[in-house]
Write a sequence for this structure.
């Protein structure tokens, strides 16, 4: 899609979609995560802030997190959210802090409160998220002294600038990510989010894009976290999905990415959000639960062995055939290119 048209579509959807008036914590939950060669308890929190600054000026094609944010959020309400989270915290060794935006954006959480949040948890590792433009090396150095291990997670989504601009509308380029990572890697661990199957990419293109992105970031990041697109409310992806113009990725595509990523020295995780549902990554419905369990086990062990003897299902052949045929069904070149490929068949 033309980038100006893409931005206009996203902005139009945002204008018609309301944000929240709630000032309470969005949610918190317990999970398990592989860290330092073992599986540890993790505690995840989603603070309700004013939300991602990019979502106010434009936004990303797949992101509906802005619908949970409150433009009128204040510091007292954020402190109440922290108290609520602490009441649920049970000394888990990993704490992940989400804000539906950037923890390092002072329009969401000011530096004083950010320090208070970091110091409140007695954890081996605390993960915070941010867009590159809010990452400041001096601030990271200060924050890193408050925790055993500070990990900064960045939603790169793709190392391909064309995909970032024309499929996601990310608002920054790969070089912006690289610049910030190099500035802070001395003081913080780096987690990089990659997106599996943004809109306008075919299934095989999406797999190749993630695999190539893993290759490009392997020397820049400590962890890769792959987020298969799930269809969120108030997004361009949802609009396309409702018109049958978008299908979330196949679970087979996740398995293919992980199989190709086996040689990577980085830990590679798969987000399980929406997996197995019609709005998330799914297969035929018969094998979804089994594959979801394999992905869950992999996330906690980083063991690729189950992929070598994976169960068989009739839908795997369908996935393979559709991935091969799809490029011919959705030709996106010029008429001149098509004529040169098929002389005597395609005429003016």
């Amino acid at each position: 899609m033309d980038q100006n048209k893409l931005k206009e579509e996203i902005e139009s959807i945002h204008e018609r979609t309301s944000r929240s008036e709630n000032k309470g914590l969005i949610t918190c939950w317990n999970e398990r995560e592989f860290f330092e060669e073992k599986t540890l308890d993790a505690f995840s929190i989603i603070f309700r802030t004013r939300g991602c600054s990019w979502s106010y000026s434009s936004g990303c094609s797949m992101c509906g997190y802005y619908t949970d944010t409150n433009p009128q959020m204040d510091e007292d309400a954020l402190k109440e959210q922290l108290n609520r989270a602490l009441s649920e915290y049970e000394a888990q060794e990993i704490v992940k802090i989400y804000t539906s935006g950037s923890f390092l954006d002072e329009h969401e959480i000011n530096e004083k409160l950010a320090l208070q949040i970091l110091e409140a948890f007695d954890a081996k590792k605390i993960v915070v998220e941010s867009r590159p433009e809010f990452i400041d090396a001096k601030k990271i150095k200060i924050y890193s002294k408050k925790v055993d291990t500070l990990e900064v997670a960045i939603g790169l989504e793709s190392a391909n600038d064309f995909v970032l601009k024309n499929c996601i509308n990310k608002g920054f380029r790969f070089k912006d990510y690289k610049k910030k990572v190099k500035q802070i890697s001395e003081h913080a661990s780096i987690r990089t989010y990659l997106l599996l199957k943004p809109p306008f990419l075919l299934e095989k293109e999406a797999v190749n894009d993630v695999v190539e992105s893993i290759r490009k970031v392997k020397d820049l990041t400590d962890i890769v976290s792959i987020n298969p697109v799930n269809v969120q409310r108030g997004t361009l992806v949802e609009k396309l999905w409702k018109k049958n113009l978008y299908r979330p990725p196949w679970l087979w595509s996740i398995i293919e990415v992980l199989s190709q990523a086996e040689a990577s020295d980085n830990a590679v995780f798969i987000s399980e959000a929406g997996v197995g549902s019609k709005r998330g990554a799914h297969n035929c419905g018969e094998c979804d639960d089994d594959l979801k369990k394999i992905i869950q086990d992999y996330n906690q062990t980083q063991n690729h062995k189950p992929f070598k003897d994976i169960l068989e299902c009739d839908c795997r052949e369908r996935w393979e055939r559709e991935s091969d045929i799809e490029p011919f069904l959705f030709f996106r070149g010029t008429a001149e290119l098509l004529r040169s490929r098929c002389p005597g068949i395609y005429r003016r």
User: Anything to note?
Assistant: The two ends are 24 Å apart (CA to CA).
